[in-house]
Design a protein that fits this description.
The chain is an all-alpha fold. It has one domain. It has five helices and no strands. Helix 4 runs antiparallel to helix 5. The longest helix has 27 residues, at 68-94.
């Protein structure tokens, strides 16, 4: 029986690790959005930057609701969209037109 209690305790601890606030992901998303905006993405990749901001807003709402898994997912999507906006902007800066 003690082994079963230990197993349950380990599973509860492991489950708790996956439900912590996505602090790093939120920070990464904010930094990626800021970098994209600084590069001019609001003009060259407006749709991606708006999507990134919408995902970040959603992540923030989920964070306040303590829905950490969904907040993490949305923060990662925000970062991805911001990086896409940055890549588009950098690509258009290198276009010799």
């Amino acid at each position: 029986m003690p082994a079963r209690g230990l197993l349950i305790a380990i599973l509860l601890i492991a489950a708790g690790c996956g439900t912590s606030p996505p602090v790093q992901e939120m920070s990464d998303a904010r930094q990626a959005i800021a970098a994209a905006k600084e590069a001019g993405a609001e003009q060259t990749a407006a749709e991606d930057i708006r999507a990134a901001e919408a995902y970040l807003d959603s992540a923030q709402r989920k964070l306040t609701e303590r829905a950490y898994a969904q907040a993490r997912r949305d923060a990662l999507q925000a970062k991805s969209k911001a990086l896409a906006a940055l890549a588009t902007t950098e690509s258009s800066d290198n276009d010799p037109r």
